[in-house]
Design brief:
With 306 residues, the protein is α+β, with helices and mostly antiparallel strands. It is built from eight helices and eleven strands.
């Protein structure tokens, strides 16, 4: 009987030890899960705060642009809004912002007007591609991607028959581009080509004149009969004194034989790109927005929060 009693006591002790061990393990697990959930909640909260700060930064930039419109009738590279903002401290983080002009770049959507290819604007894009040592056939492919019909209208164009034959088939958009990244779906536009082209072009919903105070020498050459060397001279001249009128710009052209349509030129801008970076603790959010400043408060055309 004593032996049996000892065995029973031993089993009871082992059971108690097992229960204690399981309880301890469970307690540690619950504690770890609580810490994990708490960190998740804190991270989500920080990201939400960073997101709000980023969106607030876009609104702040829109206010700056609205004030600038009331202050003067032309836009140039030495205005205060063109300066990168220093990091502004906020609770547990900081915000950085940048406003960039987008009216000094060639609008890719301008090569199609009222659903049909515009030969004059298509030729301008072809000249720009040539200046950048890129295939001019890219302009034809883009025109067919944007125009309203599903028929190939120009020699280098492609429509549904090409895109449906790909390993992952899709159809041509047959509408204006919405944002620059969409070019990746157009025949011939590789990542390398897009990177080389991006500093000179923009995707805008409407066509507009190019601001001569921001236009690059390459784009200026593409829209005129100007040589690249003459265009670089004009760009260099404006750095000391921005142009206040189109007439003043034309007075500084180095060659009287240079021809540029007045309708293609402006000294003010309506479209701007806003970039913001907000961080709260270890969470960081980058906000980007294309805004249209016509009258009063600029309107957001396209926005991204990452």
């Amino acid at each position: 009987m004593k032996i049996t009693s000892y065995k029973q006591n031993g089993v009871a002790i082992i059971m108690v030890m097992l229960i204690v061990a399981i309880s301890s393990t469970l307690a540690v697990y619950i504690s770890q899960q609580q810490n994990f959930w708490q960190r998740q909640i804190e991270t989500q909260f920080d990201r939400t705060q960073a997101r709000r700060l980023g969106l607030t930064g876009i609104d702040w930039a829109r206010g700056v642009l609205a004030d600038d419109l009331r202050a003067n009738a032309f836009d140039h590279e030495t205005e205060l809004w063109t300066m990168r903002l220093p990091a502004m401290p906020v609770e547990n983080g900081e915000v950085i912002g940048l406003i960039e002009d987008r009216q000094g770049r060639f609008n890719l959507n301008s090569i199609v007007k009222s659903g049909l290819t515009s030969p004059a604007d298509l030729a301008k894009l072809q000249r720009l591609l040539s200046l950048l040592d890129l295939p001019v056939e890219l302009a034809d492919a883009l025109a067919d991607w944007i125009d309203l019909d599903a028929e190939i209208q120009i020699p280098g164009g492609v429509e549904d028959a090409y895109y449906l034959g790909l390993s992952r088939p899709y159809r041509a958009a047959n509408r204006p581009l919405v944002e620059f990244g969409e070019l990746a779906r157009v025949k011939g536009f590789t990542p390398q080509i897009m990177n080389k082209l991006q500093p000179f072009v923009v995707v805008l919903p409407i066509s507009g004149a190019l601001n001569v105070n921001f236009i690059s020498a390459e784009v200026l050459t593409a829209i005129s009969n100007m040589s690249l060397s003459d265009a670089r001279l004009v760009v260099q001249q404006r750095r000391g004194k921005p142009f206040t009128t189109v007439a003043e710009f034309k007075q500084h052209l180095p060659n009287p034989a240079i021809s540029i349509e007045d309708a293609d030129l402006a000294v003010s801008s309506n479209f701007f790109w806003i970039t913001g970076q907000a961080s709260v603790n270890n969470s960081q959010v980058i906000t980007q927005a294309l805004v249209h400043r016509n009258q009063g408060w600029p309107k957001v055309i396209w926005q991204s929060v990452q």
